[in-house]
Amino acid sequence: MQNITILGATGSIGVSTLDVIARHPDKYRVHALTAHRQVEALAAQCERFRPDVAVVGTEEGADALRGLLREKGLDTQVACGEKALCDAASGPGCDTVMAAIVGAAGLPPTLAAARAGKKVLLANKEALVMSGQLFMDAVAESNAVLLPIDSEHNAIFQCLPQGYGRDPAEHGIARILLTASGGPFLNRDVATLAEVTPEEAVAHPKWVMGRKISVDSATMMNKGLEVIEAHWLFGAPAEQIEVVIHPQSIIHSMVSYVDGSVLAQLGNPDMRTPIAHALAYPERIASGVAQISLTKMGQLAFFEPNFDRFPCLKLAYQALSAGGTAPTILNAANEVAVDAFLCGKIGFRMIDQLIDKVLNRLPSGAAGSIEAVLEQDRRARDAAAVLIS
Ligand code: NAD
Ligand code: MG
C-alpha cells in the first residue's frame, strides 16, 4: 500500500490523480490533501478519500474547513501555511508525493519531499525550472525517486533505456524531441494576437488544464519551461532538445538515437495516463483512459515552431543558455505577467515583452542556494510589478 500526499489536490492534476487512485483502493491510500482557497472542494475530497491530514492556505480557510469536516463527522487533521505543506510532503506518513501545486508556491513542499527521499511525482514544472541544479542535487543526495508527470517528460522517460543516468551520450541519444500542440493560436493571424482575451487564451484545443498553464500553452512559454525541465530531468544540453509542433497531441514526445531509431510514446491526451504510469512505476495499472484507435485518428502533422509567433519559447531557450538564476527570473516574470493578463491588466502580447524587459533589467546571478533562488524570484516579481504599474 502506497501512502500518497497530493499537493494541489483540487486542481486539474490533483483531481485526475484522485480519479486514478479511486480505481485502485487496494494499492493507494491518501495520507494528505492540500488546496489553496477551494475549501469546499477540499472538504468533499476529504469525505470521499478520508486523508489523515488536510492543508489550506490561510487560518480562515483552516477554520472553515474544520467546520465543514466536523459537520461530516470526519477526524482529518487540518493545518495551514507553508510549513504544514512541507510537513505533509516530507513526514513519515507518506511514501509518495504528487507535486501539483501551480507555480513557485510549490517549490518549498516539493523540495521538502525530495530532501526527505520520497517518491516524487513532479507535475509542478515551475519548481524545477526555478531551482534546477539544487533540486536535482537534493534528489540525488536523498535517493528520492523522481518521476515526471508532465506528459512530454513522462513520454521521454518511457522512451529512455532502463537505468538511464542523465547522460545522453552514454546511451547513444541524439536528440530529445519535445512535441507541442501549438495551443489555441497556432493558426491565428499574428497581427491580431494583441487583442486576445483571457477566455480565448485558456480555451486549449486538446487539453483541459488550470488557467495558468493554459495561458502558458497559448504563448508557448509552457513549452519553453518544458525545455528547461527536460534539461534538468534528462541532463541534455539545450542544443539536443528540439521542439516539434504536433497539433493532434497523440505523440507525447520522442527520443532519437544515434543509430537512426526514433522512439515515441502515443496515447489520448489525458493526464491520467502519465499519472497512472508514475504511480505504478515500474508496473502498469488501468487509468480510465481509452485506447487510441490508429485507424480512426486521421493524419498526424509535424511543424517547426515559429519564434515570431511564439517569442516566449525563444526567451526560455535564451534563459537556459544564460544559466544561473536566469530561468528563475524568466519563471517569476512569467507568473506575474500571466496573472496580470488573466486579471485584464495587460494585453496578451505584453506577456513576452514584460518577461524580456525583466530578464534584461535583472542580472542573473549564481543559483547557489535555495535562499538565493527565492531572493531572485522576489526581485523579478517586484521588477515585473513595477513595469506593469
Ligand atoms: P490548477 O490551477 O488546476 O491547480 C493548482 C492547485 O494548486 C490547486 O489545488 C490550488 O489550490 C493549488 N494552489 C494554487 N496556488 C497555491 C498556493 N499559492 N499555495 C498552495 N497551493 C496552491 O493547476 P493544474 O493545471 O492542475 O497544474 C498544476 C501543476 O501541474 C502546474 O505546475 C502545471 O504546470 C503542471 N501541469 C499541469 C498539467 C495539466 O494538464 N493540468 C499538465 C502538465 C503539467
Ligand atoms: Mg506538458
From TrEMBL:
Its cofactor is Mg(2+); Mn(2+). Residues 4-132 form the 1-deoxy-D-xylulose 5-phosphate reductoisomerase N-terminal domain. NADPH binds at T10, G11, S12, I13, R37, N124, E126, G210. It catalyses: 2-C-methyl-D-erythritol 4-phosphate + NADP(+) = 1-deoxy-D-xylulose 5-phosphate + NADPH + H(+). It is an enzyme of class 1 (oxidoreductase). Mn(2+) binds at D150, E152, E226. Residues 266-382 form the DXP reductoisomerase C-terminal domain. Its EC number is 1.1.1.267. 1-deoxy-D-xylulose 5-phosphate binds at K125, S151, E152, S181, H204, S217, N222, K223, E226. Residues 146-234 form the 1-deoxy-D-xylulose 5-phosphate reductoisomerase C-terminal domain. Pathway: Isoprenoid biosynthesis; isopentenyl diphosphate biosynthesis via DXP pathway; isopentenyl diphosphate from 1-deoxy-D-xylulose 5-phosphate: step 1/6. GO terms for molecular function: 1-deoxy-D-xylulose-5-phosphate reductoisomerase activity; isomerase activity; manganese ion binding; NADPH binding. NCBIfam families: Dxr, PRK05447.1-1, PRK12464.1. PANTHER family: 1-DEOXY-D-XYLULOSE 5-PHOSPHATE REDUCTOISOMERASE, 1-DEOXY-D-XYLULOSE 5-PHOSPHATE REDUCTOISOMERASE, CHLOROPLASTIC. Catalyzes the NADPH-dependent rearrangement and reduction of 1-deoxy-D-xylulose-5-phosphate (DXP) to 2-C-methyl-D-erythritol 4-phosphate (MEP). This is 1-deoxy-D-xylulose 5-phosphate reductoisomerase. It comes from Noviherbaspirillum galbum. The gene is dxr.
